[in-house]
Every structure is written in C-alpha cells, then in structure tokens.
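Same chain as my last thread, 156 residues:
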Amino acid sequence: MIKRFVFRLERVLRHRASVRDLRERESALAREREAVASLVRARDGLLADLAELQRGPFPASERQRYQQHLGWLAGELDHARARAADLEALRDGKRAALVKASQEHRIVERLRERQAESHRLEAGREDQVFLDELATGAYIRAGRALRRSSGPEATS
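reply #2:
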C-alpha cells in the first residue's frame, strides 16, 4: 500500500502564496494619487472661482479667506505628494520583495515536486520488494507442493 505523501513545507508554501497575493492587492498608492488629483482639482476650481469674483467688486475679507483656503490646499497638496512619493518608494521595495517571494515560491515548489517524485519512486520500490517476496514465497510453496506430490510415487 502506498503511503500518503506529506510535504513538510506545505504551510510555508501557502504562507508565501498568501503574502504574495496580499502584496499584489496593495492599492494605497493609487488612492493617494487620487487624493492628489482631487486636491489639484479643488485648487483649480477655487482659483477659477477667485478669478471670476475678482472681475467685479471684491471685499478684502473675502479675498483673505480665499488666500487662507488656497494656502491650506497648497499645504495639503504638498503633504499628499510627499505621501505619494513615500508610497512609490514603498511600492518599489515591495515589488522587489514580491519578485523575491515569487522566486522563493518557485524554489519551494520545485523542492516539493522533487520530494513527491522521490516518494513515488520509494513507494514503487517498496511495492516491488513486497511483490517479489510474495512471488518468492509462492514459488517456494509451489516447489514444496510439487516435491510432495512427486515424492511418494517416486519411492513406491
């Protein structure tokens, strides 16, 4: 009977596959880029509103509020761009880690295949030894039976 093959590093293989999938799904950079684009659109819209308002009479207090809001938007835009740059660097690092994890996954996969083949060959050898022992025993029993059946006639 063939023993069931058990690959002792199966958990490592599954873990590496899940880590690889997790890294592939990372989308923080895309969200941050969208935040930058959204802030740029808000700033551009505010500048367009300000330009429209400046065509006519425009109170100084209103102008100051627009300037404050534009200053805040510029700061947020700088922060968002800095976060996006950090995320790009992180993404590049994770991409390199992903490539390494993929290579390690393939290495472990090949090791598993080799061990499975080795297990299959060993099981085949064990089965052949068992069958050889059965055949040898049957041959010996047949020889004894033949000698018993021919033995008393030869002596009479």
